[in-house]
# Entry
Amino acid sequence: MRIDKWLWAARFHRTRALAAQAVAAGRVRLAGRAVKAAHLVRCGDEIEVTIGDLKWEITVSALEQHRRPADEARQLYEESPASSERRAAQLAARRLLPVPSSERSGRPTKKEGRLIRRFTDQQ
# Structure
């Protein structure tokens, strides 16, 4: 089975085209080597998948031609314990340090507008 199709079926990417782009960009490695989207994947292969700053180290346990529900898709691979712990730590750190602009939504208040104008007038 093609690696891009397997990544799509395992729900690492929303579309097969996005999976193929990730493989072409080198964000998917098979046994430590970059591969092409048409590379065949087999049960027992070790794959490293990087999406954003999250990295999965997984072993292929099953092949599926069709995209199935998330619970079934998780049965297609086994994640290494070290990878799972590292991702959990990254997600916990992300929750503790929110993006500064995430608290605001909509237009700036009058006070924020004055601060913005003061900042831009100085430069």
